[in-house]
Specification:
17 strands, about 20% strand, about 375 residues, 5-stranded parallel sheet, alpha/beta, globular
Amino acid sequence: MTEKQILIVGCGFAGATIARILAENAFKVYLIDKRNHIGGNAFDFINSRDERIHQYGPHLLHGKANSKAIKFLNKFTKWTKYEHKVRALLNNNKTTPLPVNRTTLEDVFGISLNDENQTKLFLNRIKEKIINPKNTDELFLSNVGETLSNIFFRPYTKKMWGIDPKELEVSIGARLPVRTNRDERYFTDNFQALPTNGYTYLFENILDHKNIKFDLNTNFDKEMEKNYNHIFLCIPIDAYFDYCYGHLPYRSLKFKNQIITGEILSAPQINFTDDSIYTRQTQWDLLPNSGTSKDNKHTVTLEIPVDIRDNPGEYYYPVQTRFSRNLYKKYFELSKKNTKVTFCGRTGLFRYIDMIPCVEMHIHIAEKFLLSK
């Protein structure tokens, strides 16, 4: 073993970013993943109808154009500009824009709002006066009031997270803005795009370096640690420590593919506001880096959130509550005792991390490691 030998476990954005940066700095990197493909949850593929499918649900890349992350990824892909739009299905089977904007308010309340000032006045009338929301449900009420909370947020949040929004930290509900204009874009970042040839191609390019070797269908074993100078683990931190303090809570997803004929959805993504098991559906050939179905048939994927115990090993969303954050802190303190290991990614850090922030964060982790050598 030399001090240039590095093991990275997990081949998503976190692991691949660290692997490439260390490889470019003359470290020998061995990267493994338990799955049979690279790319983690961002993995995509072309199906028999020339549609590009995101196997683990839609991944929409957005962030600051001048960020370190975008500059890093620019080396490995060309981009197809895409500004994501989402519509929510109402009880009358019509759809309305999401995030909530002026048009949404008009659709729900059957009113006409002439400008942003009138929209702000209307929102102020229906909002609850909660100065410092202490949980996600209070944040909903303070942003949009009772009626809109009951339509757009409470049912969706409860099936998404499996618990009442009153138990969720404020940060969970803060991800979705409320607008007083008619901007129907889901994100407003100045960089919004999809990798032209897909995420899998992007990962292939990131990992294409003489100092990177990777194996798939390979599970991590603690015995591997003795063969490497340092280990970066994108695995559940509680699993590494044999759940000695208990299990950290996660939500997982199951997917149901359907073929629709002749029709197309009113947006690439439709969110369900009802009490059904589904949270959203995606029509893949409405994304601009997908091919178009030649037979007038379109693949639509519906998502079903479940507890991680009902879909073992398929981690998606850390459930952020006061209890779970305190539990994670115990594992984090325990991890400090092993300076040879760095925990990374969603499950290692017990954080929901979008793709661009994930790349940015793990660039810094890699750079910090390099500075220590």
